[in-house]
Structure prediction request, 276 residues.
Amino acid sequence: MADILVLANETIGGAKLLDAILERAKQGDAHFHVVVPQSRPRHGKVIYDEAVRDSAQVRVDLALAFMREEDIEGTGEVGDADPFNAAMDAVSAYGIDEIIISTLPAASSGWLRRDLPERLEAATGLPVSHVVVDLDTEGLPFDVTLVLANQTMAGDELLKRLETLAEERPRRFIVVVPQGSGEGGAVRAARDRLNQLLESLASDGVVAAGLIGDPDPFTAAMNAVQYFHISEIVVSTLPSNRSEWLKKGLVEKLERDTGKRVEHVESAAEPAGAEA
Prediction:
């Protein structure tokens, strides 16, 4: 069985890359190992390591979900921030036989400006296939909905709305939870709520992945728009008379600064301080 490294970042869901994986899988027994290097966010004054890693892990998770749907054997991991080091680490650790690298077009790709495919071919001696994905013109073969929520993600209102959206057309969900400004317990509680929602969606056959983002909900959402090719945004809040997010005009700010359609889901009342 051939062990094939798939190295990609924001192009991970591109149709041409997915087609290349499918085509290679049809050629015979193959195991694919997806590596997504970590990327620094453009928004926010503080870089949260957990948020950076989570964002890369979401890309890994969505790629593996695609492989499972196609009965393709695959594993994955978050790699070093330097894509060359990330690839070399995987080659050393997993006995890789081939490499598929996916980039943006030359005019937009930092990886191509650093001659990454040629460097990997020279350093490893392995065959390297290069797949160019132009997200601006090609888009993705499915919609990607960004979901921004905190305490209210445990509510039935949000779950039912996401299930309805999933029935409309092919769609993937990226759930972002601002990590809060409390101690580690607050982060753990946020991750528990996130996992609860992801498990509920998975039980209904809905493909979703999630991450703990910047404490500021606007910054968390803007970083997610940077990391992923987002089609639309769903913001879940407390009732309008209690929501700090709504008082600060979060929905309107996201519509203005992202140019995306933003849908607001109002959930049932939660304990005081839920959106602090």
In short: The mean pLDDT is 87. The longest helix spans residues 49-69. The first strand starts at residue 2 and ends at 7.
